[in-house]
Amino acid sequence: MYPIGQSLQEIETPALLLDLDKFEWNIELMFSFARKAGVNVRPHAKTFKAAAICSKLLDVGAIGLMTQKLSEAETLLHAGVLHGEKNILVSQEFADPVKIEKLVGMNVAMGEGKVLTAIENAEEAELLSKAALKWGIKQHVIIEMTQGRCGVPPGKPAVDLAKKVTSLKGLTFRGIYGYEGPVDREIAMQRNKLTVDTANMIRKAGIEVEIVSAGSTGTYHVTGTYPGITEIEPGSFVFGVGPEGTGYGFKTVNDVSFKSSLSVLTQIIGDNFSDRVVTDAGLKAMSSGFDAPRVRVDGELVDCEAVQLSEEHGTVRFAEGSEVRKRLKWGQKIEFIPSHCCTCVNQHDNIFVVKDGKLAAVWPVTTRGKYT
Ligand SMILES: Cc1ncc(COP(=O)(O)O)c(C=O)c1O
Questions:
Q1: Which of 189, 193, 302, 350 is packed most tightly, with the most Cβ within 10 A?
Q2: What is the pTM for the complete model shown?
Q3: The domain made up of 20-238 is a member of CATH 3.20.20.10
Q4: Could you give the CA distance from residue 57 to residue 167 in angstroms, rounded to a whole number?
Q5: What separation in Å is there between the alpha carbon of 123 and the centre of ligand 1?
Q6: Cβ(235) to ligand 1 under 6 A?
């Protein structure tokens, strides 16, 4: 039992905190944009991992969810987050026949088309089709168009794979995705062009392309307004991205302005030296992230020389005579803002939701540790 209503300062540390007002502000920004732009949103649940957040996003209009891993999809299905026509798209490919059987099994249990998957080659398509035929259903697939990781090259290779998919009796071809990453506007436009041109080439070959997906938190407005993109797949936006952190480091990509809603509450347990304080949040509570965390004291970002994380300690270093250091005392609770929200969330069992300085809810991190 958690004491709902207790003050922020009473929460046992280290604790992953979510500022409810900022979180809701971020969601409203993304979904009001999407309504205006006429683009669907399929949030990437690899970021936030909590069934409570999935449900909230589906309730406000997400058409479905993306997960990176099959086990994430499986766990969210068990949590019962999907309703109506909503579905889950697994964005990472499989090379393991056992996983393929599991994926098809989820569709047998939940209904055809409930869990889609991305593919990148003909062998995978054949294995999926065989497994689906065995169970008398069709597995729905999309093709990943590579932007430097998995996937097929844009153009002819993608068209050839789409033809292969449509030739297989156990598969239904739904579309393509070409996640462009947290890149600047120009690169996003170039990558979106490749994705949309490829979708049109597939259509020219006589194959219907329903889903054309791309887009990250940093590019949502560029990609979400790019003609021919039907859905965007951002994840980190719920926790913010920008100079305060929590997305991919501290860059504000394309001037996006989501509010930093995620932090780790940590207590000062070492206060004997004027050049540092030591807190109880180390790598286990923060993950290694992209950079060291930023530090917030009494709701304000503060300057320090460095934050060094070891397994269970966070050492915050200050210049000699620092005014901030003078304000910090043994037992005080401060916040670390992670530079990479997705890996930080994975370190915690629960998200402590805070409103007006008080604990408002505790949301389990439902897909914590789901790597398979
Ligand atoms: C395939 C894919 N789509 C979408 C996202 C979401 O990106 P962001 O968290 O920047 O919104 C990611 C994140 O890594 C991803 O790998």
A1: 302
A2: 0.96
A3: yes
A4: 35
A5: 26
A6: yes
